[in-house]
Amino acid sequence: xxxxxxxxxxxxxxxxxxxxxxxxxxxxxxxxxxxxxxxxxxxxxxxxxxxxxxxxxxxxxxxxxxxxxxxxxxxxxxxxxxxxxxxxxxxxxxxxxxxxxxxxxxxxxxxxxxxxxxxxxxxxxxxxxxxxxxxxxxxxxxxxxx
Length: 146
Known about the structure:
By secondary structure, this protein is of the alpha+beta class. Among the domains are: about 15-55, no CATH class; about 55-110, IHF-like DNA-binding proteins (HU Protein, Chain A, Irregular). It is built from 3 helices and 5 strands.
């Protein structure tokens, strides 16, 4: 059985709630009851949360990776009076988007991989082959002197 989810026109705004996600999943898969779609979403989210609580890493290929990061203890400031306040060490969930998700969000524009160089920027009046020709096609500095 294949379950699909198309989120193009989901929700009224830029956010999507869990109940909207469940409704979209049920609408895109008529063979699923809404209760089944809710069970699928809850099982997925609970599985990710339980793995992170154990300190595990969850990798969903082409989507992203969920990990836990440790934030060291530090001294913070009370915003009301500026007094120093100790902040204890804590663990925070962290998500890194995968290549497929980044490209999908950016409309199919491939993302650079770590270590790849940025594409060279063209200077004004420079063509992509590196020739610094002006608009009329003459090479800079070769105009006739009159």
